[in-house]
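Deliverable D4.2, example record:
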Amino acid sequence: MKKLDELVGKWCDRRAFTLLREVLKEYPKAQWLTDDVGQMYECLRGIERIHSDKLVGVESKALTEIVDELAKSLGR
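Output generated by the structure prediction step:
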């Protein structure tokens, strides 16, 4: 997922360790199977809820777009 790769890259560049610690539990996957997508969806929703104060600039919007795309792919 290109958008997710870009977001994780931004977090790496600015050393957003709290966000990276959360997302790297589920990322990257060699294949995105349904269970993997569901786990990533839950992980990113958790970041939205718990760590939204650590998102800067357009990261919040990007994260919401990624979560919405994952939700659609899961039929939620």
